[in-house]
Structure formats: C-alpha cells, structure tokens
C-alpha cells in the first residue's frame, strides 16, 4: 500500500469499534487469544512509536496522515485494558496538537 500507516490506523479503528461492540454483547474480541496476550493491543502498541515519530515508518507512505485519528483507538484500548500506557500516548499526542475527544471522519 502507498499509504501504509494511514491504512493501519484505519483498520485498527475499525477493529477496535468491532471489539467494543463485541464487549457489549459478551464476545471477547479484545482478549483474543487471551486477555494477557491480546493481539489487538499488541498491534496498537506496535504502531504507537511510528505515530509518535519515535521510529520511522519502514513502508511506503506517499502522503501525510492524521496522527490525531489514532486517539479513538487508544481510548478504546484503555477502556478495555486500563493500562496507563494508552493514556500516556494520548497525552503525548495532545502535546503534539491533538485535541481531547477527537472524532475524525471515518472515510
């Protein structure tokens, strides 16, 4: 993909929304395969240093992307895990200019 980081954020947003709905229906998508080894949380943590600019994205990215669109993903992750890591990342993004309760267009 020519916009790999954008699509990664977009896909994680969709997956976290599905996981949130599943949680309300007593379907534990967040905790696959286990709550302690959540693949969804692992994917979010993998992407975080690229979003924060701590690492360079190793794949093609031909245009800018909105770092702030990662905030709803982090909020959902925190809601499930209660891991302060996600709040710390939200705080870092806010210091980079993102606003609290950011709801990006989902298109």
Distance between the termini: 17 Å
Name the structural class: mainly alpha
Total DSSP E strands: 0
Task: Give the uncertain stretches in residue-range form.
Answer: none
Percent range for β-strand residues? under 5%
What gross morphology would you assign?
A: globular
Write the layout of secondary structure elements.
Blueprint: H1 4-24, H2 39-51, H3 71-81, H4 84-95
Description:
The chain has 107 residues and is mostly helical. 53% of the residues lie in helices and 0% in strands. It contains four helices and no strands. Helix 1 (4-24) packs parallel to helix 3 and helix 3 packs antiparallel against helix 4 (84-95). The mean pLDDT is 90.
Concise overview:
With 107 residues, this protein is mainly α. The protein contains four helices and no strands.
Notable traits:
single chain; 107 residues; 53% helix
């Amino acid at each position: 993909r020519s916009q790999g980081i954008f699509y990664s954020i977009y896909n994680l947003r969709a997956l976290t929304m599905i996981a949130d709905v599943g949680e309300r229906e007593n379907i534990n998508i967040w905790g696959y395969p286990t709550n302690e080894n959540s693949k969804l949380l692992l994917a979010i943590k993998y992407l975080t240093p690229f979003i924060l600019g701590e690492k360079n994205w190793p794949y093609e990215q031909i245009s800018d992307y909105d770092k702030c669109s990662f905030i709803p993903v982090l909020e959902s992750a925190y809601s499930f895990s209660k891991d302060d890591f996600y709040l710390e990342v939200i705080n870092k993004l806010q210091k980079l200019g993102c606003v609290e309760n950011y709801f990006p267009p989902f298109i």
